[in-house]
Amino acid sequence: MKKQILIVTLSIAISTACILLILNIMERKSEAKYLGTRVQPISELEDNPAVWGVNYPLQYEDYLKTVDQIRTRYGGSEAVERERSPEDPREVVAQDKLKIDERFITMWAGYAFSKDFREERGHAYMLQDQLYTERQKVGQPGTCINCHASTYVGMVKLGQGDLEKGFHALNKLPYVQAAQHVDHPVSCIDCHNPKDMALRVTRPAFMKGIKEFKKYQGVANYDVNTMASRQEMRTHVCAQCHVEYYFKGKDKTLTYPWTKGLEADNILAYYNEIGFSDWAHKLTKANVLKAQHPEFEMFSQGIHAQSGVSCVDCHMPYKKVGAAKITDHHVNSPMLKIGRSCRSCHNVSEEMLLKRVNNIQDKNHEMKDIVFDALVKFIKKLENNPSHPQIDKLRGIQRDAQFLFDFAEAENSNGFHAPQESARILLKSLHLIKKGEELL
Ligand code: HEC
Ligand code: HEC
Ligand code: HEC
Ligand code: HEC
Ligand code: HEC
Q1: How far apart are CA 323 and CA 325, in angstroms?
Q2: Please, which of 79, 162, 209, 316 could form a disulfide with 256 given CB 3.0 to 4.6 Å?
Q3: Is the CB of 46 under 6 A from ligand 3?
Q4: Atom of ligand 1 nearest to the CA of 72
Q5: What is the number of the ligand 1 atom nearest to the C-alpha of 412?
Q6: Counting atoms of ligand 4 from 1, which one is nearest the CA of 60?
Q7: 96 forms bridges with which residues in the sheet?
C-alpha cells in the first residue's frame, strides 16, 4: 500500500514538473518572439539603433515613432512648416515660443535665447534641432552635444577607451568639430548595456552630479551604476539630460549644480557662491542666469517621486503586444496615452485624470503669468534707473528673482511634476520682486 502511494505521488510530481517545464519553454519562446531573440551579438561600440533593432524589433519600431508631433493642451509639440534654406534644411520645426510670448525677449535680452527658442519635440530631432538653432551662431562649445546625440561611442573612442577622458576631450572641442564624433540622436547604447540589456548611465556629467548630491545627503562615494536600484535607474537614464546645467571653467566642462541640493534655491545658492553667471543683461547690466529643463530636479520634489514612481512609469509605460509586455519606447507626453500612463496606478476614468492634469496646469499658468508680468515690469524699471544708489543690490534681486521664475517656466511639465514646489518657487520670485520694488 505504502509503495503504491509513493509511486502515485512520484508520478504526479514528475508530470507536474514536465508540464511546468513545457509551460516555461512556451513562455520563453513567446517572450523571445516578442522581445527579440538575440540573432546577433551587439558590440560594445554599436551606436546604430537599426542594428539593435534587428534583435529587438518592437522596441525599435516604437523608438522610431518619436518623430511624431502632436499637441496637448500645454505640452507635446506642433509641426510648423518652414521654407528650407541653404543654412537650415529643416522643413518642419516646433512652435516659436518667442512669438507665443514676447516677454521672453525682455527677460533674455542680450542672450542667444532671445533670438531663437522653440517648444521641444521628440528625441528623433535632438541632433538636427541643435545643429540648426540660431543659438549656434554665437559659436557654442562641444559640451552642447552631451545631451543631443548618442555620445557614448564617440567619447570612448576620443578617450581611447576611457569614457571620462573622452568626455573632457569632447567638451573642449568647438561644436562643429564635436558633432563629427556623433552619428545618431540618443540611441539604445546610451541607456542599455549591450551584453544583457540592463539599464546603465553613460553620461559622466550625471555620474559626477548625482555623486555630489548623494555626498550632500551624507552618502560617500556614490556610484550610480552599481548602487542605484532598478526603479531609480528608470529615472536616472532620463536625468542624464533632463536637468539644469552649466559649463564650468575654460574647458567648458558640463556640470550639474547639485552640491547643495536639487531645489531651485539650493541651485541658486550654489551659483551665487561660485559667482557664476550666463550673461550680462542687455537692459539692466545685471549678471543673470538661464535655467534649463530641470525636469529631474522638480520632479524629485513632487508626490510621485516621493512615492517611488519613475519617469519611465509615465513616459514609457508598459504596453501589450500579443502575449508580451514591453516598455513603450515612443517617449512622449503621457497625455497622449493616459490609459497606460496613469490608469496602471489610478483607478479613475481617463476623463477625470485629464481634468486633474488640466486643473494643475491651468493654475500653474495663471501663477506664471502674474510673476512674469511683475518681472518684466521690474526689469524695465531697472533699465530706466541705471544710476540708482542701490543699483548693485537691485541687480542682484533681478538675478535671483529671474532665475527662480525661469526655473518654474523651463520645467517642461507646466507644473505637473511638482505643483506645490512650482507654486513655492514662483511665490518666492514674486516676493523678491516686491522687495526690489520697495527699494526702488
Ligand atoms: C506621474 C507621471 C509622470 C512622471 C513620473 C514624470 N512625468 Fe514628465 N510629464 C507628466 C505629465 C502629465 C506631463 C505634461 C504633459 C503635457 O502637458 O502634455 C509631463 C511632461 C513632461 C515633459 C514635457 C513633455 C511634453 O510633451 O511637453 C518632459 C520633457 C518630461 N515630462 C520629462 C520627465 C522626466 C525626465 C521625468 C523624471 C525625472 C518625468 N517626466 C516624470 C507626467 C509624468
Ligand atoms: C544637460 C543636457 C543638455 C545640454 C548640455 C544641452 N541641452 Fe539642449 N536640450 C536638452 C533637453 C532635455 C531639451 C528638451 C527640453 C527643452 O527644450 O526644454 C533640449 C532642447 C534644446 C533645443 C530645442 C528647444 C529650443 O530651446 O529651441 C535646442 C535648439 C537646444 N536644446 C540647443 C542646445 C544648445 C545650443 C546647447 C549648448 C549651448 C544645448 N542645447 C545643451 C538638454 C541639453
Ligand atoms: C541624451 C539626452 C536625453 C536623454 C537620455 C533623454 N532625453 Fe528626452 N529629450 C532630450 C532632448 C534634447 C529633447 C528635445 C529634442 C528636440 O526638441 O529636438 C527631448 C525631448 C523629450 C520629450 C518631449 C517629446 C515630445 O514629443 O514633445 C519628452 C517627453 C522626453 N524627452 C522625455 C524623456 C524621458 C522620459 C527620458 C528617459 C526615458 C528621456 N527623455 C531621456 C534629451 C534626452
Ligand atoms: C532613454 C533611455 C532608453 C533608450 C534610448 C532605449 N531604451 Fe530600451 N529601455 C529603457 C527602459 C527605461 C527600459 C525598461 C527597463 C526596466 O524596467 O528595467 C527599457 C527596456 C528595454 C528592453 C527590455 C524589454 C522591455 O521592453 O521592457 C529592450 C529589449 C529594449 N529596451 C530595447 C531597446 C532598443 C532596441 C533601443 C534602441 C532602438 C532602446 N531600448 C533604447 C530605456 C531606453
Ligand atoms: C506607478 C504608479 C503611478 C503612476 C503611473 C501615476 N501615479 Fe499619480 N500618484 C501615485 C501615487 C502613489 C500618488 C500619491 C497619492 C496616493 O498615495 O494615493 C499619486 C498622486 C497623484 C495626484 C495627486 C497629486 C498631489 O499633488 O496630491 C495626481 C493628480 C496624480 N497622481 C495624477 C497622475 C497622472 C495624471 C498620471 C499619469 C500621467 C499618474 N498620476 C501616474 C501613483 C502613480
Answers
A1: 7
A2: 209
A3: no
A4: 18
A5: 23
A6: 38
A7: 118
Indicate the burial class of 2 (C-beta count within 10 angstroms; 0-12, 13-18, 19 or more): exposed
Q: Ligand 3: does its nearest atom lie under 6 Å from the Cβ of 311? A: yes
Neighbours of 339 (CB within 10 A): 11
Please state, in angstroms and rounded to a whole number, the distance separating the CA atoms of residues 394 and 403: 14
What pLDDT is recorded for position 39? 76
* Grid cell of 421 as nine digits: 514646489
Separation of CA 326 and ligand 4 centre (Å): 9
d(CA 265, CA 270): 9
Provide the whole-model pTM: 0.94
Residue closest via CA to ligand 5's atom 23 equals: 303
| Angle value at C-alpha 376, between 390 and 283, nearest 5 degrees | 60
Closest by alpha carbon to 401, among 426, 437, 377, 369?
426
The 10s digit of each residue's pLDDT in 31-60 is 444 455 567 899 999 999 999 999 999 999
Q: Are 267 and 297 in contact (CB under 8 A)?
A: yes
How far apart are alpha carbons 294 and 245 in whole angstroms?
9
**Ligand 5: does its nearest atom lie under 6 Å from the Cβ of 355?**
no
Look at residues 190, 202, 205, 200 and name the one whose alpha carbon lies nearest to residue 256: 205
